[in-house]
Give the backbone structure.
Amino acid sequence: MANNKNLAINLTTNDDHLDCFAAERCYQAFMKWLEENRAKSLSAANLRLKVCQQCGHCCMGIPCTVKPDEIKPIASYLGLECRELFNKYMVIDKYDDTNEFIRIAKEGQSDIVGSILPRLRRFDRGYCVFFNKNTRLCNIYPVRPAEAKDWNCWERQSPDEYNHSVFAWNKGQAIRFMEHK
Ligand code: SF4
Ligand code: SF4
C-alpha cells in the first residue's frame, strides 16, 4: 500500500509563460524524430501487412490516452488503486483550452507522474512506460486502452490522420475524477 505522500496529486504547472515559438520548434523536432523512427520501423504499414508486427513504434513518443472507464481495469490488473496507478504511471495532458487527456507517461517521466504534463515535456522522447522492450509487447495488453486496440498503423500514414480528440476528457473532468479517487 502506498503511503499518503505517494497518493497526493500535484495539479500545478507553471509553464504558461513558455513562448509559442519554443513549443512549435519542439513540436517540429519531435515529429521529425517520430517520422524518422517510423520510416525505420518494421511496422505492419511499412511491410504492407495488415497484422500488427509488434515493432513498438506506436508506443514510442505518444503513449496511449485512457478514458475514465479504462482506469479501474488497468489499476486492478496491476494490483493498484486508481490514484496509485495515476500517481505512478500517468499524467494529465491539458492539450488546449477544451481538451484534456489522461495519458500514460513515457519512460524518463517519473519526475512528473501524477501531475499536469508541462507543455514542453509532451515532446520527451521514449517509449510508453508499459512498453516492454524485451518482449516488444504491451505490459497491460489484456486491459490496454481502446486507443491501442484501435490504432492499426496500416490504416493510416501518419498520427495526424487519427482523431485523438475522441479520447479527450471534458475540461476539468480529469482533475475532478482523480481528486475523488
Ligand atoms: S500497430 Fe504499432 S506495434 Fe503494431 S506494427 Fe503497427 S506500429 Fe508496430
Ligand atoms: S499502453 Fe500499451 S499499447 Fe498503449 S502505448 Fe503503452 S505499451 Fe503501447
Q: What stands out?
A: Confidence is low (pLDDT under 50) at residues 1-7. The pocket of iron/sulfur cluster (ligand 2) is lined by residues 59, 63-64, 104, 128, 130-131, 138, 140, 144, 148 (CB under 6 Å).
